[in-house]
What we know:
The protein has 444 residues and is mainly α.
Amino acid sequence: MKFKLTAKEKKWVWYDIGNSAFTLLVSTIIPIYFNTVAENAGISEENYLAYWGYATSISTLIVALLGPTLGTLSDLSGFKKKIFSVTVLTGAAGCIILSFMSSWIWFIVLFIIAKSAYSVSLVVYDSMLGDVTTPERMDEVSSYGYALGYIGSCLPFILALVPVLLAMQGMLAQSIAMPVAFIIIAVWWVGFSLPLWKDYRQIHCIDSCSEPLKTGAKNLGRIFRELWHEKKILLFLLAFFFYIDGVYTVIDMATAYGTALGLDTTLLLIALLVTQIVAFPAAILLVKLSARLRIEVIIGICIAAYLGISIYAIFLDQQYEFWILAVCVGLFQGTIQALSRSYYAKIIPPEKSGEYFGVYDIFGKGAAFMGTTIVSLVTQLTGRMNFGVGSLAVMFAIGIVLYIFAVRMKNKTLTDRAEENGGQTDGGTDCAAQNTPTGNAGQS
């Protein structure tokens, strides 16, 4: 039977289409633009890659600190949409202002602000999944989000790429090309967030209180105590910390790596556009395999594939090798992110989704912080960029071992609980009933 998204699910998926345009900008045009700014300041190629890695690391560290607190706060009735709106608008505004920066230091500062706001918006957005669909549909909905996000980001990226390429050919001033490109991305991002912003209703939540920040901090501490007793969640988060490290680092530094190697800039941009195109059918195809293969098996395959990709990157020094890398990344990039998100959403309490996805972001963004930092340090210590990128293989190897233990613990826990209480679960407060008379408005 053909899978069809409901009205609420579509509006949630549309935000993936909107924010993916900014993701593609960050992984392609922004590093190239920063390279130009850095060159004008007399910064070497090795230090350019290192500084870019440090900037990404600082951004992910900020999100690792802010994400859990704001995620916990978003679980309170009426807060999720507010936090989502502020972070989206802050990120889009930062994106536009970034294009006018000529100082490499201020460029990094604006980049950190825009990327941090973008990442926090994803913490809240991911936690909305349980409010727009059912546990049985989470794998498909999450995967459609990533898949459509990849293909949907191609249109604004191509539009943004036109003035950038004209500037590279000397046919348009860079001072005009970059603002035009960045404004296109920002408008696309905000535009596709509007349907979700307008119609989203928070179903699972915690009752509001007079001291939300104090309550949020208290709830966050309780979540960490709960994790110690929820071994299936804790082990998965540890595995996720290691394997998603490489995924995020490859996304953040692929263009910077290729540029530092001296590969043709135009072909790099086209290669990464191919990554987006390949990722669309790959994410759909692999999630459909979940009808025959368990989601745990597919995630395991993706981790193993990335281990191979990181080893391959050590020997990369030719343009065609970068194209091979781009295609391989596209095959598994969306699937590993989508299924990790939906797998996690299934094993956490739905009424505490914001809190738990805030913790999820600690492990995800903490990993990205470590990954980009390791790449930067190894590159500077060895003087070999290949060794820096290749160091990610260790992270994938640790991740796949921990993941195997996490899956075994989940299966054991489910078996034990089924024997004890027949699978009975606890429910949360129905926010939809509090906020609207129709509850599930928008579902078709």
